[in-house]
């Protein structure tokens, strides 16, 4: 039974006291100050009458489980140590805490499934390293053997990591030397004796090694050329034309679009899908404004419309390697080629020879997939071939592979793209054997392609046959 009472002290402050009514019986020593501590030990047969034990809260006998903010465990421990042994035992009993509360023991986090409870002191003496406490301990010989094996595994893993790191450094150094040699070849020979150097046996196929990033923009401009005789002012004149089209009446604009439909949202959708992993072309990013200006100027210059769907992807690839005005000149001249014009206008007659060559190559290299497209899905090449050509494989591909494809396409021209299609479909074969055309569209146009390493995929492209 417990009761609370406020007792006035000598200095006038009120102290709350807890009165605990305890019964002492034969063979039981109640915790608390003992009246016979000075007169000797009591007999175990003596019946002790009930007595009151008074606990003064001002002396912190009732040690709280959670100390107030600002009160350290050291202060509580010092105050607790000043109490008599009986008061300490009673305080601990009333609060149901253990003496180890006042010791700085690191907290142990155990898995309840593997180690449901802390082991006893006796069990700790024989526990094995890394073994749950509820399992029998290992023998000393077995434990030593396992520790030796673990140390061997650890050293082997460290050695393997060091070898991998050295191999990566070695590959990077080899790639750096290779790029340096290629840069010297392009600067000292190919660009110097352009275009006669392209027919040399020493230069034949050097672009298949990949044009170094530092000179890629210059090489692209050289091979694309400037058949339209564009100059520095051409870009700004096209920008002014694009602004006029943007502010023109929508009905008049729709009549002037010819094969293209004016749709402002198409530009926004394509920009969001343009190399999102680089965070350069989306709204609010560094090259967003440049890309919008580039594709708007190209669309207004070439087709007298606000935007040509799919042109943002090639425009972004050019902007990564050259400045805005140079990218505009290269884009207009590149997409003015007959094949690219047919792609963006979807001229089936102009693309008939390319389509037939692709279908015959697909039947020879991947007959199962060709049969699946023609008879199971009953789809035409323009449903999957032309959209990929308009996007130039860029949205679903890595920037490195897309750049390598552009390197080779500019030098080897249209038939090279058939090799790319054959290698690509061979890589995605099992995903393209879907019986639902919507799943095939998802694989080709919306999912990222896992084509592996850049050099490995390009090797498959070069090995693909055209028939």
From TrEMBL:
Residues 210-413 form the Rab-GAP TBC domain. Signal peptide: none annotated. Keywords: Coiled coil. Residues 31-41 have a biased composition (Low complexity). One of its GO terms (molecular function) is small GTPase binding. SMART domains: TBC. InterPro entries: Rab-GAP-TBC_dom, Rab-GAP_TBC_sf, Rab_GAP_TBC_domain. Residues 24-47, 113-141 are annotated as: Disordered. Pfam families: RabGAP-TBC. This is GTPase activating protein. Residues 155-182 form a coiled coil.
